[in-house]
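Sample pair:
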Amino acid sequence: MTQSNQQPDRIDVEDAQSLTRWTRELDTTEEQLRDAVAQVGDKATDIEMHLKGARSTTNVDRVQQADAKS
């Protein structure tokens, strides 16, 4: 078993691999993930609950809406 410098339930927004993994796993954008970490801390379960609570539509819908505005 290998040891990681980071606890598996923590999200490090300064680490590119962590960002990639968690944006995919939580179906969110990098910007939304960074905002969530700033608001509730780096614990993955807290961030997941924050993101789910903040969504009145699915994240896919919100990303498509954002892309349409660009």
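The CA atoms of residues 32 and 51 lie 8 Å apart.
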